[in-house]
User: Which sequence fits this backbone?
C-alpha cells in the first residue's frame, strides 16, 4: 500500500514538495488547489498593468505533473480537517491521508474593514490582477467621456495602500505608464493629470529591507512623480473617499490594496495551533504543534525554532521552496527510519523593482546593497530564471524586451467577466 | 470645420475604413466599439481550446490608433440612431456625425430558442472563447471527481452544433486534444471515452465551399473519431439533453453553438432597410437604402448590386476589409466632387483547417482545390500574415511552433470571472 500524501495548496511550497517527493514511487501524492493552475505571484503586478499575459506567469497543474504518474491533481477547496480519522473534506469530496501538508499561503488582510474589502482592489490572485487591469482601463475610458470635472478627478486619482514590494512595484509601473502611454493614447486627457499616491502606515517603504533600499525607493518614486505618504493608516473607504486615521482624506474611485496578508483558519485545527497573523505554529520539521501527521509549509507556517529567525521566516518564495524541499527529504527519512533534519533557512537576499533601470537588492553574504541599473538587471535575471517553466521564460523575455525598447505594451484589453455555462460546485 | 465620421464597430470592416481614412486630415474619425480592443475572429477557436492567448489575437484600439491624432476611440454601445439630427446615442453619451458607418458585424443566432441561448456556449467573442475554455476544463475536472457514471458520460460528451469553418475547426482541435492530451493529463479518465459530435442541419459540412472540400473535411473528421451527423436540426436543449427535430437525442452537459449568425436591429433604422438575416440593404457604394449619410459595411451589409454576387457577399473577412477600403476611397471622392466607385468583390478563395497537417482551400483563379499538408501550410501563412500587428504575429508563430512539436499547449488555465470594482455604465 502506497503512503497517501495530501498537499493542500499548489504555490511555491506545495509544488516544491510535490516535485521532490514525486521521484519516490512509494508515495501516492494528491495536490489539491482551488485553481487548476500554479502561478508566480512576484510578477502579478505586471499582469495587472498589462505588461505580461496570464499565460506568462501561470501553468496548469496537470501539465506540470504529466511526467509523474504518482502525483494526482484534485481541484477543490479545503473545508474541514478531521485529524482523528485522517481525512479532509473538500468542496469536491473527501480524501484520506497518511500525511497532510497545509501549504495554503495567505490572503489579503483588510483588518476587519468591510468597506475596504468591498470597494478596494486587492492583489493576491490572477483574478485580482485582471480585476485591477480592467478597473484601471475602465476608469481611463470613463475619464475621457465624463463631463463632470469632479468625477474625472476621482477617476484619475489612484491610491495604492501598502508600501511593500507589490505596492512599490505597482506605483512605479503606473508612474511610467502615465508618462509614456497616457499622452499618446488618451489625447482627450492631455490637459489633466493622473495623481498617484502610495501610502503606508509604517515610517518607511519596504519595511523588511535595508535602510539604504528604503531610502533609494522613496527618493526614486518621488522623482517619478509618485506622492508617497508614510505613517498614514487607512481608516475607511466609502463614497469614493479614502479616510486616514489622522483625519486626512483623498477622493478617488481607485483604491488598490496591498497593505497586508493573513493566513486562513481551518475547521478542525485547534485554536492553540495558530500564532501571529493566524500562521500555524510548527516545529523545526514543519509539524503543526499539537497535531500528528499534519504539517504546514510556506507563508502559512510560523517556525520559531530556526535560531536566526526567532520571529519566524519572512513570507517569501525562498523560505517556502526550501521548507517544501526539506519536508520532502524528511518524509523520505522517516520512511527509512532515518533521523529528521531540522529546517534552516538559507537567506538569498531580497529585491524590489521600482521602474525601468531602477531596482534595489539587499544581499546577505557578503552583506551588500545594490541599486539602479545593476540591481534591475539582477532582478530581471532572478525572476526570469525563477519562472518554473521553459515556455514561460521565453515569451516573458520576449514581452519584456519589447516593453523595454518600445516603453509600451499591448495587453490593455478589457476582458469583461462572464460565468461559465456549467452547473458546478468546483 | 473637419468632417465628422463616426464608425460603429471595430472589426475587419471598421478598422480597414478608419486606417485608410486616417491619412486624410480633413476627416475627424471616431471609432465606437463596446470593447476597447480589436480581435481576430478566425482564430477565436484556438483561444477556446487553449492554444493561443487572448493577446495573440487582440489589440487595444487606442494603441492601434496611437499614430493618428485624427482618430478618436470611444467605448460604448450603439443605442439609437437619429438620422434627422445626424446624431447617435451610445450607452456612454451622444455623438454628432456628418457620415455614419455601421460596421457592427453579426451575433450568434439561436433561431428564437431560449433554452439553447441560455445553456449552450456560443463562439463569437473573446468572452465566448474564454467561457468555452473554462466550461471544457471544468467539465473535465468534474468528470475526474464524480462517482455518478451517467453524470460522467454527460460531462465527456461534447456536441458542436454548426458545420461551418468554426464548427469544423473546434471539432478537429478537440479530437486531437482528446487523443494527445487526455490520456497524459487525466489518468483517472483513461478507461472512459470522450464522445465528440458535430451536427449540422444541412446535408454537408462547410456549405459554401466546394464539394471536394466538403467531402475531404467529412472523411477526415470521421477518421479522427468525430461523429458527424448531417441533416440534423437542433430543436431544443434542456435537462442536459440535445433534442433534434427528427426525435433523436444526445445527453450532454456541453453544447457548443456555431450554428448561425444574425445582424443587429438598430433603433432609428426603418423596417424596409433590412434584408435577409437582418442585414442592412446597401447600394453599390454601401449606402443604406432609404437613408442619407448612413452606410453599412462588412457582415451587416447586404449588397446585391455586385453582378457576381446577386445574393450578397459571403460574411467573411475579405469582403469586409475590401468594403471598408472602398468606402474610404468614396468618402474622399465625394469630398473632392469626384465620381463614386461601385464596390466589386475580389474573391481570394476560402479555406478551413481541420487538424494538424489537415486543411482545405478553394482558390478562385485558377479554380483549384488544395487539401492536406499544403493547404495546412497555406492556412498558417494566410492567418499569420492577416494578424494586423507585428507583435501578435511573432508570439503566435512561437505558440504554434511549440504546439506543433509538442502536440500540446500550456494555456489550460481556468480563470474564473469576477466583476471589476467600479460602478460604470461602460
Assistant:
Amino acid at each position: 500500500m502506497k503512503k497517501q500524501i495530501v498537499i493542500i495548496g499548489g504555490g511555491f511550497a506545495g509544488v516544491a514538495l510535490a516535485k521532490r517527493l514525486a521521484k519516490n514511487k512509494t508515495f501516492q501524492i494528491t495536490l489539491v488547489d482551488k485553481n487548476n493552475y500554479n502561478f508566480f505571484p512576484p510578477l502579478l503586478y505586471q499582469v495587472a498593468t498589462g505588461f505580461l499575459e496570464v499565460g506568462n506567469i501561470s501553468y496548469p497543474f496537470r501539465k506540470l505533473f504529466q511526467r509523474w504518474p504518482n502525483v494526482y491533481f484534485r481541484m477543490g477547496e479545503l473545508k474541514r480537517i478531521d485529524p482523528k480519522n485522517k481525512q479532509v473534506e473538500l468542496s469536491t469530496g473527501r480524501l484520506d491521508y497518511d500525511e497532510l501538508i497545509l501549504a495554503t499561503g495567505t490572503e489579503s488582510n483588510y483588518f476587519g474593514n468591510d468597506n475596504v474589502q468591498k470597494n478596494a482592489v486587492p492583489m493576491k490572485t490572477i483574478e485580482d490582477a485582471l480585476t485591477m487591469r480592467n478597473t484601471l482601463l475602465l476608469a481611463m475610458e470613463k475619464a475621457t467621456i465624463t463631463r463632470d470635472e469632479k468625477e474625472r478627478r476621482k477617476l484619475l486619482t489612484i491610491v495604492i495602500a501598502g508600501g511593500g514590494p507589490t505596492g512599490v512595484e505597482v506605483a512605479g509601473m503606473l508612474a511610467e505608464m502615465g508618462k509614456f502611454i497616457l499622452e499618446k493614447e488618451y489625447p482627450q486627457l492631455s490637459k489633466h493629470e493622473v495623481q498617484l499616491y502610495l501610502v503606508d502606515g509604517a515610517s518607511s517603504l519596504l519595511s523588511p529591507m535595508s535602510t539604504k533600499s528604503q531610502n533609494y525607493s522613496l527618493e526614486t518614486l518621488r522623482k517619478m512623480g509618485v506622492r508617497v505618504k508614510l505613517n498614514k493608516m487607512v481608516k475607511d473607504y466609502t463614497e469614493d473617499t479614502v479616510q486616514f486615521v489622522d483625519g486626512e482624506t483623498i477622493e478617488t474611485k481607485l483604491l488598490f490594496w496591498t497593505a497586508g496578508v493573513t493566513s486562513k483558519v481551518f475547521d478542525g485545527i485547534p485554536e492553540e495551533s495558530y500564532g501571529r497573523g493566524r500562521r500555524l505554529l510548527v516545529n523545526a520539521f514543519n509539524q503543526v504543534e499539537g497535531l500528528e501527521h499534519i504539517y504546514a509549509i510556506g507563508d502559512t507556517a510560523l517556525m520559531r525554532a530556526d535560531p536566526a529567525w526567532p520571529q519566524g521566516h519572512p513570507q517569501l518564495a525562498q523560505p517556502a521552496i526550501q521548507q517544501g524541499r526539506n519536508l520532502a527529504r524528511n518524509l523520505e527519512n522517516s520512511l527509512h527510519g532515518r533521523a529528521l533534519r531540522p529546517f534552516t533557512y538559507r537567506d538569498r537576499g531580497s529585491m524590489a523593482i521600482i521602474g525601468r533601470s531602477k531596482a534595489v537588492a539587499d544581499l546577505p553574504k557578503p552583506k551588500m546593497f545594490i541599486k539602479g541599473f545593476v540591481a534591475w538587471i539582477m532582478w530581471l535575471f532572478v525572476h526570469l530564471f525563477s519562472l518554473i517553466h521553459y515556455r514561460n521564460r521565453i515569451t516573458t523575455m520576449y514581452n519584456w524586451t519589447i516593453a523595454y525598447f518600445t516603453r509600451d505594451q499591448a495587453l490593455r484589453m478589457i476582458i469583461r467577466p462572464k460565468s461559465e455555462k456549467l452547473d458546478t460546485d468546483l
Summary: Chain B has a mean pLDDT of 91.
